[in-house]
Design goal:
- The protein has about 230 residues and is α/β, with parallel strands linked by helices.
- The protein has a single domain, classed as Rossmann fold (3-Layer(aba) Sandwich).
- Helices cover about 55% and strands about 10% of the residues.
- It contains twelve helices and six strands.
- It has a six-stranded mixed sheet, with helices on both faces.
- Strand 4, helix 10 and strand 5 form a beta-alpha-beta unit.
- The longest helix has 18 residues.
- The N and C termini lie far apart (about 35 Å).
- Belongs to the CobH/CbiC family.
Length: about 230
């Protein structure tokens, strides 16, 4: 199939010629201004889209990948894995047409009535309670987990992983000042595939950008996910 026709029919790409032209020119500018980097051909499209979404080139230096993380994420997306997120903003930011390519359901539990009631009873955060609920219901197994807001969500997730939960991929990108860097460091020691923005910087926008980049890679068949995955 002609490349232009394929992109026009693929909802992972902008659907109008003008939209595609603007996006591709933006990516060209990011590539040019970013200069040399040490990311693999499969990692860079994710970092590039994160920079594109924020106009912040610091993410070139802050973004870390566990070896095999991209491959694990693509395999999970293609298999229809659920996407569990810590903020409604992430769920709202994900393009429904792109999610329909592989049938990935987005799950946000912080507003779930049972989670809210439990948090009010125990005095814990809704983020911590949401992870506990997801672990009880088996929702963490094989899921892609996107954390762009709450470090308590990420810390609780790491504890769940230590107890045996195995998400397919964790995007650890919370933003803030309390326990943010610590939560990310804890994730980077966990035996699961992860993509992390080091330090205090992060946010829901970055998780959305990373997920859209992964969906586009998966839809384009850009990575041979049949090869052995290097992630834990």
């Amino acid at each position: 199939m002609d490349e232009l026709v394929r992109k026009r029919q693929n909802p992972a790409h902008q659907l109008t010629p003008k939209g595609r032209a603007i996006e591709e020119e933006s990516f060209r500018i990011v590539d040019e201004e970013a200069g040399p980097h040490g990311f693999s051909p499969w990692e860079w499209p994710i970092v590039r889209r994160m920079i594109h979404a924020t106009a912040d080139f610091e993410y070139k230096d802050l973004t870390r990948f566990r070896p095999g993380a991209v491959e694990a994420g693509l395999e999970a997306l293609k298999g229809g894995a659920r996407i569990l997120v810590d903020a409604r903003m992430i769920a709202c930011g994900l393009n429904p047409e792109r999610l329909r390519i592989f049938g990935n359901e987005v799950v946000e539990l912080l507003s779930h009535p049972e989670v809210v009631a439990r948090a009010q009873t125990t005095g814990g955060t809704r983020a911590e309670t949401a992870v506990a609920y997801a672990e009880e219901k088996g929702l963490l197994q094989g899921a892609i987990v996107g954390v762009g807001n709450a470090p308590t969500f990420l810390l609780a997730l790491v504890e769940a992983i230590r107890r045996g939960a195995r998400p397919a991929l964790v995007l650890g990108m919370p933003v803030g000042f309390v326990n943010v860097a610590e939560a990310k460091r804890a994730l980077m020691e966990a035996p699961v595939p992860w993509i992390v923005t080091e330090g205090r910087k992060g946010g829901s926008t970055l998780v959305v950008a990373a997920l859209h980049a992964l969906i586009r890679l998966a839809a384009d068949g850009g990575v041979d996910t049949s090869r052995t995955l290097r992630g834990g």
